Amino acid sequence: MAQQEPKNFLIPKHTKLTSDEAQALLEKYNLEGVHKLPKIKVKDQAILDLEVEIGDIIEITRHSFAGETKYYRVVVE
How many CB atoms lie within 10 A of CB 75? Predict the structure, then answer.
């Protein structure tokens, strides 16, 4: 899993999932493909250093008073 430490403390941690992790995520949520996930653009500043390709899944880890929450996005053009 490629990780990027945010350059700005307001930007949550973004991590590129491996193909095995992505497959496990799709199975866990019973998704037939990545097209059902919310999108993030390939040129988004938060993922530029992750060497992503279109179709990769990004895990976004946010911290709040309620604890840690993970969100997932698929990389699009």
Answer: 22
Distance CA 22, CA 34 (A): 9
CATH architecture of 2-76: Alpha-Beta Complex (3.90)
| CB-CB neighbours of 14 under 10 Å | 24
For the chain, domain boundaries: 2-76
Per the structure block, which two tokens stand in for 51?
Answer: 């060497």
- Asked if residues 18 and 2 have their Cβ atoms less than 8 Å apart, the reply is no
Compute φ and ψ for 72, nearest 5 degrees.
-130, 140
Per-residue pLDDT tens over the stretch 13-68: 999 999 999 999 999 999 999 988 999 999 999 999 899 999 999 999 998 888 99
3-class secondary-structure state, position 4: strand
